[in-house]
Amino acid sequence: MKEIRMVDLATQYEKIKIEINEAINEVLESTAFINGPAVRTFKENLEKHLKVHHVIPCANGTDALQLAMMALDLQPGDEVITASFTYVATAEVIALLKLTPVLVDVDEETFLIDPQKIEKAITSKTKAIVPVHLFGQCADMERIMAIANRYNLFVIEDTAQAINAEYTFSDGTVKKAGTIGHIGCTSFFPSKNLGCYGDGGAIFTNDDVLASKLRMIANHGQSIQYHHDIVGVNSRLDTIQAAILNIKLKYLNDYTKARQAAAEYYDHAFEGHPLLKIPKRTLNSTHVFHQYTLKLSPEVDRNGLKNYLAEQKIPSMIYYPIPLHKQKAYQSDRYGPGDFPISEQLAASVISLPMHTELTKEQQDFIIHHVFNFLKRYIS
Ligand SMILES: *Cc1c(COP(=O)(O)O)cnc(C)c1O
């Protein structure tokens, strides 16, 4: 059996090596390293794939979120609501721009931001909501958009973990993750569902005005060279990364299906076990399984399980061990330990198993066997 990895980029690369190497070589020969033709073709291919008017490629997912906030003309002290159980990047850019991150708790079964709690957190200073499509399925976008419309708020979707997920509205309309809010942000970090071989990111919007503003901000605040109308940043997707993404985008649907099949295989094995809960699917979104995350019963020694798996050469990860409101950099007199009990409970009880496009049944059987083997000690 092949070595089990959390994400097996090596085996995935083996299968597309010829195409990838050719694409990289083409860029090397052309020396068009910055804004070469592949950046434009990737942008257009992704627009078609997502059925969104504008894709603005940028340097990484964190930049995408920052550019999105900058484009909305938010003022210091404006409040932006996001989830307490997420990767730090979301809150980081809010704080960096001197906006106020307002955290709300998540749903204990789906791990997604709770719309009811969003509504409770709205004040006269609230300007935007950043739902995070955590682990690969969309937050409850129909309700979030309804709340945003009612209170006149912007919605920036953090789609870094959910590219290619599909959300179905109650009228039957289907939209891709990241194309529902005013702006969507994603990351092409290598381990993401559409990953390049370095850093990369992109912003999505259907709004023409926001799109040209986002493009300006990403390019030093200029629309004409050396004419700087607003303060911007330098955030670009390298041509080499765009060339790689152009190849990988062709396989994104297959990659998504491979992850979903692996998740179903895990589900089938783990469902109904008294000491763990399989990841719950929402009704409206497909799940693209950036992570396959189990929730353990309180009596299970999570570190013990993790160490036991490691001894069998099975990697596992804790996403995320500390919720944002307990992170040193995000201390606030607005909240403290105990305020987001579900996030705290999840931080203490979740464990993510290997999940990627190359998992074999043999590897999964091995992982499943050893999870069960560890849990046996709790069952008399
Ligand atoms: C990965 C990730 C980001 C940041 O992406 P980078 O490309 O690493 O900057 C932001 N939000 C979430 C939820 C992520 O998982």
TrEMBL record:
In the record, N6-(pyridoxal phosphate)lysine modifications are located at 192
Q: Which SUPFAM superfamilies match?
A: PLP-dependent transferases
Write out the GO MF terms.
Answer: pyridoxal phosphate binding; transaminase activity
Name any Gene Ontology BP term.
polysaccharide biosynthetic process
What does UniProt list as catalytic? 192
Taxonomically, which superkingdom? Answer: Bacteria
Q: Which UniProt keywords apply?
A: Pyridoxal phosphate
Determine if Translocase is one of this entry's keywords: no
Q: Which InterPro entries match?
A: DegT/StrS_aminotransferase, PyrdxlP-dep_Trfase, PyrdxlP-dep_Trfase_major, PyrdxlP-dep_Trfase_small
Q: Do the record's keywords include Magnesium?
A: no
Membership in a protein family: Belongs to the DegT/DnrJ/EryC1 family.
Q: What is this protein called?
A: dTDP-4-amino-4,6-dideoxygalactose transaminase
Source species, please?
Answer: Schleiferia thermophila
